[in-house]
Write a structure and sequence with these properties.
68 residues, 0% strand, transmembrane, protein transmembrane transporter activity, 3 helices, flat, mainly alpha, Tim23-like
Amino acid sequence: MFSGIESSLVALRDEDDLVNTVVAGLGTGAIYRAARGPRSAAIAGVIGGIAAAAAVAGKHVVKRYLLV
Protein backbone atom coordinates (compact mmCIF):
# COMPACT_ATOMS: atom_id res chain seq x y z
CA MET A 1 0.00 0.00 0.00
CA PHE A 2 2.77 2.42 0.99
CA SER A 3 4.75 1.78 -2.19
CA GLY A 4 1.69 2.22 -4.38
CA ILE A 5 0.83 5.57 -2.82
CA GLU A 6 4.44 6.75 -3.01
CA SER A 7 4.84 5.66 -6.63
CA SER A 8 1.58 7.37 -7.57
CA LEU A 9 2.77 10.59 -5.95
CA VAL A 10 6.08 10.42 -7.80
CA ALA A 11 4.20 10.00 -11.08
CA LEU A 12 1.74 12.82 -10.30
CA ARG A 13 4.26 15.32 -8.93
CA ASP A 14 7.17 14.29 -11.18
CA GLU A 15 9.49 14.60 -8.15
CA ASP A 16 10.98 12.01 -5.84
CA ASP A 17 11.44 13.71 -2.48
CA LEU A 18 10.64 13.55 1.24
CA VAL A 19 7.12 14.92 0.74
CA ASN A 20 6.06 11.83 -1.22
CA THR A 21 7.32 9.53 1.52
CA VAL A 22 5.61 11.45 4.32
CA VAL A 23 2.29 11.70 2.46
CA ALA A 24 2.48 7.98 1.63
CA GLY A 25 2.99 7.24 5.32
CA LEU A 26 0.04 9.46 6.21
CA GLY A 27 -2.16 7.78 3.64
CA THR A 28 -1.16 4.27 4.60
CA GLY A 29 -1.76 4.88 8.29
CA ALA A 30 -5.11 6.51 7.62
CA ILE A 31 -6.30 3.74 5.30
CA TYR A 32 -5.10 1.06 7.74
CA ARG A 33 -7.31 2.44 10.54
CA ALA A 34 -10.18 3.87 8.48
CA ALA A 35 -12.60 1.16 9.62
CA ARG A 36 -12.27 2.30 13.24
CA GLY A 37 -13.47 5.81 12.47
CA PRO A 38 -12.11 9.17 11.38
CA ARG A 39 -10.35 9.98 14.66
CA SER A 40 -8.45 6.70 14.67
CA ALA A 41 -7.62 7.12 10.98
CA ALA A 42 -6.28 10.64 11.58
CA ILE A 43 -4.12 9.53 14.50
CA ALA A 44 -2.75 6.55 12.59
CA GLY A 45 -2.10 8.79 9.59
CA VAL A 46 -0.07 11.22 11.67
CA ILE A 47 1.88 8.37 13.24
CA GLY A 48 2.53 6.87 9.81
CA GLY A 49 3.73 10.20 8.44
CA ILE A 50 6.05 10.75 11.39
CA ALA A 51 7.43 7.22 11.08
CA ALA A 52 8.08 7.67 7.36
CA ALA A 53 9.79 11.03 7.92
CA ALA A 54 11.94 9.54 10.69
CA ALA A 55 12.98 6.65 8.46
CA VAL A 56 14.02 8.99 5.65
CA ALA A 57 15.81 11.34 8.04
CA GLY A 58 17.63 8.38 9.60
CA LYS A 59 18.68 7.18 6.17
CA HIS A 60 20.17 10.60 5.38
CA VAL A 61 21.99 10.72 8.73
CA VAL A 62 23.49 7.28 8.16
CA LYS A 63 24.62 8.22 4.64
CA ARG A 64 26.16 11.46 5.82
CA TYR A 65 27.91 10.45 9.03
CA LEU A 66 28.71 6.76 8.60
CA LEU A 67 30.95 5.27 5.98
CA VAL A 68 28.48 2.92 4.36
